[in-house]
Write a structure and sequence with these properties.
The protein is an alpha/beta fold and about 325 residues long. The protein is about 30% helix and about 20% strand. The chain is built from 11 helices and 15 strands. It has an 8-stranded parallel sheet. Strands 11-12-13 form a 3-stranded antiparallel sheet, sandwiched between helices. The protein has a two-stranded antiparallel sheet with strand order 3-4. A hairpin with a 7-residue loop joins strand 11 and strand 12. The longest helix has 15 residues.
Length: about 325
């Protein structure tokens, strides 16, 4: 759980933004809700020095990334960076291919706790060959660094990434539309067997609060990501966040489902057309506390309609959804 710059800010990032975001995570109660990582995505780096070391943008980060990392840590948060398993990043900045050990050592010196590792501008070798090189380089530093693999699901990382990373992207980039969000959920939920403590399917970062979906659609988005035990990385501007968006992102019941220690990913178990033309999808997963059945769908009313139609399938279950109607629980 944390924050990432890309979905809202793209390459328009600087140290003042990151410091202010860290402050807001604390002030809004989001740190205490579980959001710990403050992650810089692409465009923080500009070049390499004569010895091959990666150099941060001196205009955007004049104090340096070590100072910025120290500030983030001083707030009780963790600090994350981005790189690419290619010659250049997706934004055309220096990539880490061929520099894995040197870059990993630099990240450790800066106090990095999280690395998002992209898949642009490669040399043509498969991700299965390139990503373990960075894994080994990170491990060699002796510093615990969460390794977030971002190869977009192109080589079915759910089949092999458990031995390489802590999370792996299952899809291409999300956009701030309901269709994009649902398509990423559909691509990810079928991979539920691959996920579990220590390694998670990642359908991309959250778009909640970026403005192009409705409030109800954002609740659905957050609920589905929580059900799928996906990383919850805030992608909106915390400096101008609305109360409605904050309510979604800080929902304790939904976060508890995402962070459940059992770590069983929710999956789609049924589809129905209770009225045309809408299609309803129903998800379930098991929770560690008592093995409760958790079913998520678009609204509580739709869950009630489903169970009315299903008859005995819902016998003995009660609804729990007062605070989180788009992450409805049927608890037996």
């Amino acid at each position: 759980m944390g924050f990432n710059t890309w979905n809202h800010f793209g390459c328009n990032i600087n140290e003042n933004l990151i410091r202010a975001t860290a402050d807001r995570l604390v002030a809004l109660g989001l740190r205490d809700a579980g959001y710990k990582y403050v992650n810089l995505d692409d465009c923080w780096q500009v070049s390499r020095d004569a010895e091959g070391r990666i150099v941060e943008d001196p205009t955007a980060f004049p104090s340096g990334l070590k100072s910025l990392s120290d500030y983030v840590h001083s707030k009780g948060l963790l600090f994350g960076l981005y790189s690419d398993a290619g010659l250049k990043t997706c934004g055309g900045r220096p990539g880490s291919l061929g520099y894995e050990l040197l870059d990993a050592q630099q990240y450790a010196k800066w106090g990095v706790d999280y690395l998002k590792y992209d898949n642009c501008n490669t040399d043509g070798t498969p991700p299965e060959k390139r990503y373990p090189v960075m894994r080994d380089a990170l491990n060699a530093t002796g510093r615990p660094i969460f390794f977030s693999m971002c190869e977009w699901g192109v080589d079915d990382p759910a089949k092999w990434a458990q031995e390489v990373g802590n999370s792996w992207r299952t899809t291409g980039d999300i956009t701030d539309t309901f269709a994009s969000m649902v398509s990423r959920a559909d691509l990810t939920e079928r991979l539920w067997r691959a996920a579990g403590p220590g390694g998670w399917n990642d359908p991309d970062m959250l778009e909640v609060g970026n403005g192009l979906m409705s409030h109800e659609e954002y609740k659905t988005h957050f609920s589905l990501w929580a059900l799928m035990k996906a990383p919850l990385l805030i992608g909106c501007d915390l400096l101008s966040i609305t109360n409605e968006t904050l309510e979604i992102l800080s929902n304790k019941e939904v976060i508890a489902v995402n962070q459940d220690a059992l770590g069983v990913q929710g999956r789609k178990v049924a589809k129905a057309r209770l009225q045309q033309p809408e299609e309803y999808r129903f998800y379930q997963g098991y929770l560690g506390a008592g093995g409760d059945l958790h079913v998520g769908n678009y609204t509580l009313a739709e869950a009630e309609a489903y169970c009315t139609a299903a008859g005995d399938k819902c016998a003995g279950f009660t609804f729990y959804g007062t605070h989180a109607p788009n992450a409805t629980q049927l608890v037996k």
